[in-house]
Structure formats: C-alpha cells, structure tokens
Amino acid sequence: MKRWLKISLKILAVLVVLVILTWLAGAFYISRNKKEVLTSILSQLNKNLNGEITATSMEPTLLKSFPGVSVSLNGVLLRDSLWAQHKHDLLKAQDIDVSLNVLSLIVGNVNIRQIAINNAAIYIYTDSTGYSNTSIFKSKAGSDKKSSPKSSALEIKKIDFNKVDLVLDNKKRHKLFNFNIDQVQGRMEYPDSGWTGKIKLKTKVNSFAFNTRKGSFLKDKTLDGTLSAHYSRKLDAVILDPEILNIGGHPFKIGAQIELDKSAFAISIAVDDILFRNVALLLAPNISSKLLKFGIEKPIDIRGNIIDDGSGKYGDPLIKVGITVRDNVVSIPAGKLTACNFDGSFTNRDTVGGIIGDENSAIKFHKLTAKYFNAPLKIDTFTVNNLSRPIATGLVTSQFPLSNLNNSLGTNDFEFKNGTADLRLYCQADIDNFRFTKPVVSGEIKIADADILYIPRNLHLVKSALNINFNQNNLSIRNGHFQLGKSELNVNCDIANFANLYYTAPEKILVNLKMNSPQLYLKEFLPFLGPRNAKKTKSSGNKQVVSKELSNVLELSQMNIRLTVNKAIYEKFMAKNLDADISLRGGGIFFNKISVAHAGGQLSLNGNIIQQAASNSFKINSKISHVSVKDFFYSFDNFGQNTITNKNLKGYLSSLVNISGRISHTGKILPRSINGKVVFNLNNAALVNFEPMVKVGKFAFANRNLSNVEIKNLDGTLNINGDKVEISPMQVSSSALNFNVKGTYALGPGTNVAMDIPLRNPKGDENLTKQEKREARMRGIVLHLKAVDDEKGGIKIRWNKDHD
C-alpha cells in the first residue's frame, strides 16, 4: 500500500473516531442533563415570542440525526398570550424531534439544527377584530432592536412536518384553509436578506376557501411537489418561485408572494393540456356549478392570477384567468360549437378601481370562430358582464350555404337544397340559468336563392329570398319572395316583441304578414289544412331542445295575413282581385274578411276552418252579389251534390249563405256534412233539364216546355241539414207554369216535396197586372203533387192527398 494512502486512511479513521466520541459525549451529556437541555431548548424556542411553548417531557433519540444528536419533545403546546380568550392552540404536537449541534451543546449553548413536527395540529386563528395568534412571533416590547439579527435569530436548517393537520382560520375575512399534511420537508439557509429554502410538499386539501360563504377551492384534492421559497426581510414577504406542483394528479406551475405584515398575497397559476371539467372541479362550488353547465372536449391551456391586497375591503381576492381553446368542441346550453377557437378571459373586477365581485365580473371571448349547427360563426369579441345578473353582448357574423343546416337543427322539419345565408347580428341578452332570455338583437340576415322543404306541411319553396331585419326585440322581413309550385308570393312581415316571446310565450307571437301575388294556385296551399307530419328524430340534449323550441314557435305563433292576389285559382274556381284578411292561430284558419270578383259578380265571406285529426270543420258566412249561377255552381263543384248542377242553371244569383260543415285535408267538401241556411235571389234565371221538373211535365203538362223553365225573379230560403235540404214555402213564377213548393229534398232517402201546380198556362196571363196575376194564380184546376223516393233510389211523383 502506498504511503500517502496509508496516511489518508489514518486521518480518516481519526476523524471518524472524533465524530463518534463527540456524538457519544453529546449523547451522554443529554442523558445526564435532560432537564437542563429541555429548559435550554424551550428557552431558545421561546426567544422573542409573545407567548409560550411548553413540553411535558423530553427523551433523547440518539440515532435519528447522527452525527448530530436529537431529542424528542413530548406533549408540546404553543400558545399566544391571549389564548385564554380564544382557546385555539397555535401548535399541539404529540412529539417534536429537535436535532442539536453537538459542539455547541458541549460548550453549554443549545443550537437547534432541525425540527421535525410529528402527529400534530397547527391552528392559525384570526378573530373578527383582526387579532391573530401568530402575533406570538412578533418581537417583545422592549427587546434590543439594535442587536444583530444573527445573534438572536432562531436559524433552523431543516423543518419537517409529518402527519400534521394545518388550519388557517380567518373569521374577519371569512377565509378557511385546512390541510392534512402527510409530509413537508424544508431545507433552509439564512443569508442576511432573510432565508431561502426548498420545500417538499405532500398534503390533502380539506378546505381552501377565500370566502367560506362561497365554498372551497381544491376540495379533497392532493398537492404534491417541491417549492423553492425565500423570505425577504425588506418586503416582509415569503416568495415562492414558479415550480411544478401536482394538484389532483395534474402538473400546475405555481408561484406566489405572501406579504406577512398585511396578510396580502399574489398567486400565479399556469397549466397546459388539461381538461376543462378537471379545472372546474378544482374551483369553489359557486363557480364550478356554473362552469359545469358548459363543456370543452379536448384539453386546454390556462393562465391565472389570484391577488389579495390584505385590506379586506372587497372580501374576495382579485381573480384574472386566461384560457386558450384551439380546434375544440364546446358544449353550451343552446347547442354545440364545433371547430371552436378562441382566447378567453375572466376577471371579477372588470372596471379598474371598482368593486371585486359578481357585479363587476366579466367573461370575454376574443377572436372566436366556430361552427354552430354547421353554420360558421365569427365573433371578434363576445362579453358576459355582471355574473350576478349576466348580460351577454357580441357582434356575430356568418356566411354559409343553407344546406349546412341539414341534419344539424335536431329536427327533420326542414330540408335545405340550395341557397345562401349572410348573417350580421349584434346581440345583447340576459342569461337566466345559462340560457339566453330577453334578447335584444340588431342586424340583418340575408337569404338568397333558397330551395326549402318544410316537411311537416310538405311545402316546397323554391327561388326564395328574403331579408330578415332585427331591431332590438322586433323582427321584420322585407323583400321576401317565394315560389310554391306555380304560385308566386311577395312578402313583407312585422313581428313585434319577437325575441322576448320566442322563449317565454310563443303562442303570443303575432306575425303581421303582407303578401301579394300575380297568381296563386290555392290547391298548392292545401297542406295547411292537414295535420303536421313531422318525422321523429333521435337527437337528444341541447339540439333536441332547440328543435322543439323552433317547432313550437312555428306552430303556436299567431299570424295575421293581408293578401292581395291578381288571379286566384282552385281547381274549377277562378277569381280576380282577391283581397283577404286571414288569421292563423292555434289549430285554425280564420277568414276575417275576403272579397273577390268571380263569375261576373262579387263574393265576400268570413268564417273559419278548424283543423282536426280526420277532417276539418268549417263555418262560412258569405254574401254573393249578382254572380252567374251557372259559373258559380261549376266553380264550387255543385257544392257536393249532383241533383241540381251547373248544367241545370242559368241566370244571376245573389245570396246570403250561413253554413257549416266538414272539409277533407285535400280540400273536398264531405258529402252530407253541410248544415246551415241559404237565402237567395235568382234573377233572369232558367232551370234547364231539371229532372223533377221534367217528370212533372211528362205527368201533367205534355204541351209545355218544362225542360227550359225561365224565371224572371225568385226569392227563396233553404235550410240545409246534412243530406237534407228544407225548402221554405216558395212561390215560383216561370215561363212554363206557376207553382208553390215546400218540403224536404234529400240527397239520399227522405225526399218529400209538396207542389201545388195550377193548370193555368202563365202565357195566358202575360197581359194582366201584377195584382191581377196574384189573384188569378191559383184559379181553376190545381194539381196537388208530391215528390218522394222511389224503390230504385230515384224520385217519383204522386198525388198529394194530404195537401193544405
């Protein structure tokens, strides 16, 4: 062995022996002088305390801090001078391990190197007046302020907490921080500026409440990591350099500055690639319950600051948070935003110098782009102010083909085959339970060249265009043009208070619609008579809510229509200069007033059609003025009967009609469904080839032409009851014969019409005066006949033995 190595080993051996002898000497000293050492330790710990630390006993624990020596203080209590008033121990520990410097111990001075607090409870208490039991650490009155900090300061190189419950309870500020500390290890250095240290932390958070009235942050979450800290005497502040701290298993970069004299603090937080839900669950319930109504599918990046100036002026600390969202899916109560990008921010003091709290809070979304129901949206800035009564504002712009909306509204009510939409809207709305209410909207939506199928009514609109204008709560449509089959409609529309009623009372929405058309084929609008035929969808959640709202609005809203048409056509019916005032509300179509030129005369009517499952009921009050009776019967398909048809009639009709009945969903009047009354006047009329009249001629008047009976004037009243027409007593004066008629004419069985027919030929009375004609009407032979059913379902004529 080389000589230098031997010398080195000998020196090392001597040093080891010296260390062991020194350690044994210290251990022996402690064993022989436990009382004096305990007194010295407590004296060292109590130096400059406004209170007292006590221990019930002390035992040496020789091997715990070799080559130093250590002791275990049992039953340790640390109480401030006002403990008797508030009864909160600042420290209560089963045992505290204290490591001592052996050399300083031998020379009679206790120098504490490290402290380990085990199985303990630390309760830092501040009462409602602002007094804290941490005042125990303030310098005693009259202490030597000129002494060097180095000469009197307690400088502990290492501090460990094991199984310690730590509570910071501030009654004045309503703050409560409660931790179950599994382990805290601190390595300390003491430069002139203060101290520095590395702190290894592992703890569970029971409460982290900046305001106990609003709940705790980080509830039941674990904190695990290493922090770099230093204390600045100049600032009287503890500064935590930004380090990674695992919170609930996710790495956060945390930095902080805590000003001890003012109880002020500033905390910076940065976290990347974290799920929005996991962040929300770290916050207080009053915040997380609101945030969890939203969802963000992919991870996001967050930066935040929590600042408290220590004044207690506002109660809550100042919070500023920034969030970065890229190519994400965001769920909101009104649907989903896909391909979503934005930079978001939150602060609870939006107005600089203002209060801190919900009333002065703001959420802002900057440069937001997304697809909403496949429609691309662009919002430069969207803001939600005053979270106690939230108000959302923003300018929304979008341009997209209407076909993007197919299968995205949560309903199959609409199918868009063509067309474009250009949207520019400024929106302001209250947010109630995270749904937009009382919206105020200004702006315009332009729809061009649209091809739209409204499936519930099977209406196919082509070449459609309109400008939808929003003026705060009101909505208007201008320059609307629609084509439905061969029908063309030009539309202008006004809806007052639309935005408010859309959500709260769609049945109160009143649409004032003005339409004009060069030509209208009424049959193309028959789908309005039938029931809705909406297909069921499997959509769920928010999309289903939106589609249900939209369908309800379309079906429940009321509509007043003012319609002018140059030419209106329905099968055989053709009219000109139609002027109509129509209302759609509930399940009915109400004809308030309709006038039209038809068959050389004028028709006016009012009434309604009530939609029902199998067929629709209708009521009509009509006035007919001097229309061609032949054309009139032809146009209305002989009113559902084939006994008296347009082929049997000539002349001009004026009438008052008050009837009700049923009409099919295809627009056909159901046979035998009509009830009501018809008061009519025929002028310059003729009854041509009317079967009952022809049969009477064959029976009694073979020499007269009853196949073309001319009537200059006839007044009559008909009461219709299903398939039976009650003919009120009526005097008929014609070219072939005069007769009186009354009774029941049935479209099926039940005909019983009495006729009194004088045999006098009316042509022989042509030169008589009116009075003479009336007096001569029933002179001579009078036939009393009755028209009744025959066995074959037709009509037969027989004598009326029971005539009056």
* Strand percent estimate: over 45%
What about the largest sheet? 39 strands, mixed
Question: How many separate helices?
Answer: 12
Taking the alpha carbons of the first and last residues, their distance comes to 162 Å
Structural shape: rod-shaped
Strand element count? 39
The whole-number mean of residue pLDDT values reads 82
Q: Portion of residues in helices? A: 10-25%
How big is the Rg? 50 Å
Explain how this protein is built:
This protein is 14% helix and 53% strand. The protein has a 39-stranded mixed sheet that branches. By secondary structure, the chain is mostly beta strands. Among the domains are: 126 residues, no CATH class; 217 residues, no CATH class. About 1% of the residues have low confidence.
Helix/strand layout:
Elements: H1 3-32, H2 34-46, E1 51-54, E2 57-60, E3 69-80, H3 83-86, E4 91-100, H4 102-106, E5 112-126, H5 149-152, E6 158-170, E7 175-189, E8 194-209, E9 222-232, E10 237-247, E11 250-259, E12 264-274, H6 276-280, H7 285-291, E13 295-296, E14 300-308, E15 318-332, E16 335-347, E17 362-372, E18 375-385, E19 391-401, E20 414-432, E21 435-454, E22 459-472, E23 474-484, E24 487-495, H8 498-504, E25 510-517, E26 520-521, H9 541-556, E27 558-570, E28 573-585, E29 588-598, E30 601-610, E31 616-628, H10 629-635, E32 649-663, E33 675-688, H11 691-700, E34 708-721, E35 724-733, E36 738-746, E37 752-758, H12 770-776, E38 782-789, E39 795-799
Parallel strand pairs: 5-6, 25-27, 26-27
Antiparallel strand pairs: 1-3, 2-3, 3-4, 4-5, 6-7, 7-8, 8-9, 9-10, 10-11, 11-12, 12-14, 13-15, 14-15, 15-16, 16-17, 17-18, 18-19, 19-20, 20-21, 21-22, 22-23, 23-24, 24-25, 27-28, 28-29, 29-30, 30-31, 31-32, 32-33, 33-34, 34-35, 35-36, 36-37, 37-38, 38-39
